[in-house]
Amino acid sequence: MDTITPDPRRWWALGALVASMLTIGFDTTILNVALPTMARDLGAATGQQQWMADAYIVVFASLMLPAGLLGDRFGRRRMLITGLGIFLVGSLVGMLAGDVDAVIAARAVMGVGAALVTPLALSVLPSLFAPDERTKAVGVISSASALGLPLGPIIGGWLLNHFWWGSVFLVNVPMAALGIAACLFLLPETSDPTSPKVDTVSTALTATGLGALIYGIIEAPTHGWGDPLILGMLGAAVALIAALVLRERRVERPMLDMTLLAHRGFLFNAIAATLVTFVLSGLLFVLPPYLQAVLGHDALGTGVRLLPMMGGLLVASRTAGPVVARFGVRASVSAGLAVLALAAFLGSRTTVDSGYGFTALWLSLTGLGFGFSIIPAMNGALGTLPRDRAGSGSGLLMTLRQVGGAIGVALLGSLLSGAFRDRLDVAGLPAQVADTAGNSVIAAHVIAEKAHLTGLAGSANDAYVHGMDLVLLVCGVAALVSALLAAAFLPGARPVENTEAADAGPDDVGPDVVATRVDA
């Protein structure tokens, strides 16, 4: 049993960790509201906007697991401070960036910092809190991370209405600085010298394989799917990911334990959680331009109008636990995915004249479907594993979700980009102007405003809604297929409390899983 002498400063330290996780949480969604403004000011095409979103996620997904091992070996406080420092530097670079490439680089740097902060913010808690207080501390940190998601669009919208787009990066600076100061003065240093070394080969294979895959998907609408560069990148991605899987199956202590996928409950719950993240990431990428460019709302209005989805998620997160207790994981996950499919199919009926009321309806259903599927799916995945596999299972699950999010932005964004360009009517425009207008709905509106081309603006709105409807249709089909898989293959028995998994502390369970337990 843990014997920890209570430190009177531990709650202050927890407050600093909360500020850090809150920053990471709202940074996940704050950029989506800023992208239309940044596209206008920086002249960013849809593909470049995808990179601004995905650079962060790809790096985060690639480095999260090795980052946790670095903290174990070299000191959790030291690496937590390092992560916050890297995140702060990335935010400063993003704030001062003058072009798209600098923003993408800044987002990648921020992904490195977030990969260090996310697992280590929870892993330092056992050194601060005795077991009777630790659950409360974990709940506070997890709630802060979850609270950041709905706060991101609102904070970002308010900042963009009053300041320049770089302010969405500036807001991170004081929060990260506060976290660094608190870690320096309030956190004890802890480490585990027996922790396995970081597998640099597996880390490199993960980063390059995922990076090549995302590059091929994002750039395909520009170059064409048959272009040798695109085919080469996609082929390289397949080879690198295959090499990663083979290596992880052979090493004694794998970074990603692929044998966990042999557990049917873990596999299909992980598929469901990854698919939901794929859909949500894609939706949060395509919705802000619709609300701003097509419906004409400002940045703050856009953030506020995303709240019905967060409201549906909040309702579902508070009721998913009782639903699972009564009907079982399979019923909750498959029903949640079916609701998500219904929401996407409804959304795919959107027209230029639909208005926000219809959008609010299907956004609310999206939040409900998201909450009723992902929370039980993640708990169900972990619940199938014994205690000694909970930590590796959580790490694999978090990585799969991040990969799903990155592919969601890349694939659904590319689908939107291609559909928009094909549908946009640029007849009579000079070739260079027509090409620029096809970059994004924002670019088309800028050209239409400067040249007083009302027909181009109307065509851009119609083309964007057409592309968004196509994206939502794909999301609906994917969610429906996943719902059928969940109904067919998830264990059907009502869950019995897995005491071994439930007893796993924050050392054993990643932040995503802890967060869903608390919310549920």
What does this structure look like?
By secondary structure, the protein is an all-alpha fold. 80% of the residues lie in helices and 0% in strands. The longest helix is centred in the last third of the chain and has 37 residues. The radius of gyration is 22 Å and the shape is globular. The C terminus is likely disordered.
Quick structural summary:
Helix content is 80%, strand content 0%. It has 520 residues and is mostly helical. The radius of gyration is 22 Å and the shape is globular.
**CATH class (first level) name of the largest domain:** Mainly Alpha
Could you name the CATH homologous superfamily of the largest domain? MFS general substrate transporter like domains
Q: Unreliable stretches, pLDDT < 50, 5 or more residues?
A: 495-520
Ends: how far apart?
27 Å
Describe the largest sheet. Answer: none
Please identify, by name, the CATH architecture of the largest domain. Answer: Up-down Bundle
What is the chain-wise order of helices and strands?
Answer: HHHHHHHHHHHHHHHHHHHH
Residue-averaged pLDDT: 82
CATH topology of the largest domain: Growth Hormone, Chain: A
Overall domain count: 3
Query: Based on DSSP secondary structure assignment, what is the total number of beta strands?
Result: 0
Q: Overall 3D geometry? A: globular
Q: Name the beta content range.
A: under 5%
Radius of gyration over C-alpha positions, nearest whole angstrom: 22 Å
Can you count the helices? Answer: 20
The percentage helix is over 70%
Secondary structural class: mainly alpha
